[in-house]
Amino acid sequence: MDKILLVVILLMTLGCSLNKANKKILPVEEKITAQEEITLPRVWGQTSKDLVPDEKPRPAKHIQPDFSQMDPNIKSARVVLEAEIFVDGTVGQINVIESGGEYMDAQVIKAIRLWEFHPGKIKGEAVDCWVTFPIGYQIDN
Q: Which residues contact 61 (CB under 8 A, 6 or more apart)?
């Protein structure tokens, strides 16, 4: 058992896998076909901020932040966020550009994380990009 484990670890280290049908070792790159395309996890914050889409991302699914525990003395506040939007409409990195206070920032980020977007587009093709927008809080008396 120890010898098999050592061989598997060695193959993984070398970036290879065993093809059981032909009993030969293939480089990992040769194993992946067009039908077996693998989606790698995105790295948040890696999208260029210089990319300006023709069509900006727009919310498709909008979740309201929970301000139920907001200090009752605060009548209005605003958070300005910069969010990375991927081609699949999911949200990546979120940066607070203008803070509305620690509690409000946390609640807004928590809600935005659940949003889904129609992605930004350049010449009709979806692209990863950044969008900046405000989220406000106001109590009318």
A: 114, 115, 116
CB atoms within 10 A of CB 49: 11
> Which residues contact residue 115 at a Cβ distance below 8 angstroms, ignoring those fewer than 6 apart?
59, 60, 61, 62, 63, 91
Q: What domain range is 11 assigned to?
A: 2-36
Record the tokens describing residue 25, joined without a space. Answer: 């070792």
Indicate the number of domains in the chain.
Answer: 2
Residues 104-127: b if buried by 16+ CB within 10 A, e if exposed = bbebbbebbeebebebbbeeeebb
CATH of the domain at 131: 3.30.2420.10
Amino acid in the structure at residue 132: T
Q: For 19-57, what is each residue's pLDDT tens digit? A: 344 444 444 444 444 444 445 557 888 898 888 999 999
Phi, psi at 138, each rounded to 5°: -150, 135
